Amino acid sequence: MKEEQLSPADMARMQLEKAARVMNLDPNLLTILRHPKRVVEVSIPVKMDDGKVQVFQGFRCQYNDFRGPFKGGIRFHPEVTRDEVIALAAWMTWKCALVDIPFGGGKGGVVCDPTKLSDRELERLTRRFTYTLMPLLGPDIDIPAPDVFTNEKTMAWIMDTYSIFAGYNAPGVVTGKSRTIGGSPGRREATGRGVCIVARKTLELFGETLENKTVAVQGFGNVGYHAALFLSQNGARVQAVTDVTGGVYREEGLDIEDLGRYAREHGGVAGYPKADPLPGEKIFGLPVDLLVPAALEGQIHSGNVHEIQARYIVEGANGPITPQADEVLNQKGVLVVPDILANSGGVVVSYFEWVQDRMALEWEEEEVNERLRKKLERATVEVKETAEQYHTDWRTAAYILAIRRIEEVYRERGLFP
Which among 137, 33, 129 has a CA at the least distance from the CA of 403? Predict the structure, then answer.
């Protein structure tokens, strides 16, 4: 299939099948893992502020629950598609298995432009979407979380709507909530923090440190901002950042906290006065040590992969590299730390949040961060060891580890009936 014809679901399937070939996976299990358990498409009628009714399209994919309840974010974006949601749910399945937490994979999305909706319209949209999915949600069934253009407030609306119909307070139905209503300390920063932890451990495994390593970050939302912040706090020089508005570059390194304040005040990084402007597409060609793509899927492809000069790519986003570009990077000797490892910090701390909600207690932030570090460092070591065992790249090794854990459950439980 030509690269331009690849959907995110095609990418996810190709990655799965490559790992299956390398590990000689049971064909029956591969047949099961190729397909999501359930994909729901719904219409969401919403009364807008002007009194007119607009109908939005929504999706929820529940990909696999062999290891536990479906887990995955809900995104609000004008380019959400059924295929994208399926791919993201599949990646979440492998991600949860890789870091060894008792969840399966899910994902949801609503086709909308949240920047053009008022707060009240977003609330009505979120609550109606939750109501429509009610039979499929629950702390032991399917547990949403924030994603692109959704946040703590969105999760509060979902939790409240679910709790009203359930007849009791159910904080465990979502993660990524504010601490006021049962969220975990450290959850907001967890994905970006995880990118830093995995990058640091990866370098350590090759006898290097983050000190004075140069970094470029594509995407400056929650993940990109916190990844850049923690990398800089650990001694790296984040020289370049781009977002939808443009990009900035400073050879000596950017002040990430200051850039973050500017971006919040001005709607993006473009025009930041303490750095040089950088066209967004130029970020991939910078001669940096680490490149962190933290935007959307398919950003590195056959059309720009040859520009890449970074020695390491640490995927903050899901699916930012196409399979064809992956092959080129492997041939060039670029180590790609895959999304299902690099950005798994968010779902790990979501698991910690879910556990705290179920136990009705709160851990200190230091404990959450330490548990996160141990989980991710262990997984990074396991991926490297598996890559060496199978003489393969880190993405395929991460898939092999994840699929092995799912396979163990499949063999123990059997296939009903």
Answer: 33
